[in-house]
Amino acid sequence: MDLYGIGYSNIRLPNDRSSYIYTYNSYINTFPEEVFVHEFLHSLERILQERGYEIPELHDYQKYGYKEQRLIGLKEWYKDYMNCNIKSSDGNLVGLDSIVYTLTPPAESDFKYTTELDFNNESKNILEEAKNLFKAIFRMFGIK
Ligand SMILES: [Zn+2]
């Protein structure tokens, strides 16, 4: 997920512990870890794309003949994506270039305009949303 064009993946889980998403059901939750793998791979995909690498789009599994399977979802696609082991139409193997695993994590200087998110104070309506947005902007410029 792209967050205001700054390239972050965001996974949000409900606070309510009784939510059905915390109950494993093999008929509903196929490969439940997939959401974390998926969003993490988007980060790696973006790192390489920003450096000019030509790699398959993470969502293009069908173009390369992969199908979502019961219980394991797109596990095979993700495995081949990470190992650069996807057969392309021209016979080459494509996927994430292994250089992505050697790149250093982002430094503080990469986050020039960050604002701390307050997950305990989540907006409940559009007015609160606007208010929180302006608060964040003011904080960004050091205005309290
Ligand atoms: Zn995605």
What's the gist of this structure?
The chain has 144 residues and is mostly helical. It contains three helices and two strands.
What would you say this structure looks like, in words?
The protein is an all-alpha fold and 144 residues long. The chain folds into 2 domains: 1-109, no CATH class; 113-144. The chain has 3 helices and 2 strands. It has helices at 34-50, 75-82, 126-140; strands spanning 86-87, 93-94. It is flat. Zinc ion is lined by residues 38, 42, 58-59.
Please give a handful of descriptors for the protein shown:
144 residues; 2 domains; two-stranded antiparallel sheet; 3 helices; binds zinc ion
Hetero groups in this structure are: zinc ion
How many β strands by DSSP?
A: 2
Q: For the residues shown, what is the average pLDDT?
A: 81
Strands of the biggest beta sheet: in what spatial order?
1-2
Q: Which stretches are low in confidence, meaning pLDDT under 50 for 5 or more residues running?
A: none
Let me know the largest β-sheet: 2 strands, antiparallel
Helices, by number, come to 3
Secondary structure category: mainly alpha
Order of helices and strands: HHEEH
Distance between the termini: 30 Å
- Rg from alpha-carbon coordinates: 19 Å
Helix fraction by DSSP (H/I, runs of at least 4) = 25-40%
Count of discrete structural domains: 2
* Range of strand content: under 5%
